[in-house]
Write a structure and sequence with these properties.
Family: Belongs to the sodium:neurotransmitter symporter (SNF) (TC 2.A.22) family.
Radius of gyration: 29 Å
Shape: globular
Strand content: under 5%
Organism: Schistosoma curassoni
Number of strands: 0
Oligomer: single chain
Subcellular location: Membrane
Membrane topology: Multi-pass membrane protein
Largest sheet: none
Binding site for Na(+) 1: 56
Distance between the termini: 77 Å
Length: 293
């Protein structure tokens, strides 16, 4: 006769197997529901979008020119090869292997979960000030649709008496007055930026009022960001095709246009002429790290 205790144990084992099977199926269903890239090209385009941005168009040339020209490229490429690329590959590989977010990916080693929290906070801070730059860009885009560019000439309400146009009609017999204007003068573009766009106050104790035009431009930038990421990679993966390729298009257009200007070769030579003394300046090293952001 069969021992009843064995039958009960076998039934318990079958129940455990059934519960484990249910848990496994639920887990697999949860994993399959997670959004994934449709193909390798989408992931590569996304990586390109995170690697190339507005800073490559307007900030990197300025920092390169300011910090020794061609001499700046030496520590830049060394730091990129030694630190930038390896850290980038490690971060991407960990995310791809774990198929989780920046914080949950460190479940592989909970001791380093703070790295995920720090990277998330850094992304939040960087996106905060980059969105402000996008708001400024929207302001200039809307202002450029006017019949005459408001920053091209003086004579506006935000210009001061020190504003000097690019072309000035003056009495050449009074050269002292002309020299004084060029020493203490300001170009209309700078005054438009400081007095019209930013409306800088006269001190930190005077905060001024909200610039509603900039606030609306900032709201527009955040709205576009929300619409781009609200549905995950289903929408952001497609938008990356535009945002990742746009900086390359801008740089190619700027390269072609500047190469056609008079004295372009002299300007490029002066821009890339190495100043090796800058390598001993710690400010250059700091700007080098800032340019890789």
């Amino acid at each position: 006769m069969e021992d009843p205790s064995k039958s009960f144990k076998s039934e318990d084992n079958l129940g455990n197997l059934a519960s484990w099977s249910t848990i496994t199926q639920t887990t697999s269903q949860t994993i399959t529901k997670r959004d994934r890239w449709k193909g390798k090209i989408d992931f590569l385009i996304a990586c390109m979008g995170f690697s190339i941005g507005l800073g490559n168009v307007w900030r990197f040339p300025y920092l390169c020119y300011k910090n020794g020209g061609g001499a700046f490229l030496l520590p830049y490429f060394v730091s990129v090869i030694v630190a930038g690329v390896p850290l980038f590959l490690l971060e991407v590989a960990l995310g791809q292997f774990m198929s989780k977010g920046a914080i949950a990916a460190w479940d592989i080693c909970p001791l380093f979960r703070g790295i995920g929290c720090a990277s998330t906070m850094i992304n939040f801070l960087v996106n905060s000030y980059y969105t402000v730059i996008l708001g400024w860009a929207f302001h200039f885009i809307f202002a450029s649709f006017s019949k005459e560019l408001p920053w091209a000439k003086c004579g506006h309400s935000w210009n001061t008496n020190s504003c000097i146009d690019a072309v000035v009609r003056t009495n050449l017999s009074n050269s002292t007055s002309l020299l004084r204007q060029h020493i203490f003068g300001a170009d209309p573009a700078s005054e438009y930026w400081e007095n019209r766009v930013l409306r800088i106050s006269n001190g930190i104790d005077n905060l001024g009022t909200i610039q509603w035009d900039l606030a609306l431009c900032l709201l527009l930038a955040w709205t576009i960001i929300f619409l781009a990421i609200c549905r995950g990679i289903k929408t952001s993966g497609k938008i990356m095709y535009i945002t990742a390729t746009t900086p390359y298009i801008f740089m190619i257009i700027l390269l072609i246009r500047t190469a056609q200007l008079e004295g372009a070769l002299n300007g490029i030579t002066y821009y890339l002429k190495p100043d090796w003394d800058k390598l001993t300046d710690m400010t250059t090293e700091g700007n080098n790290e800032f340019s890789k952001e």
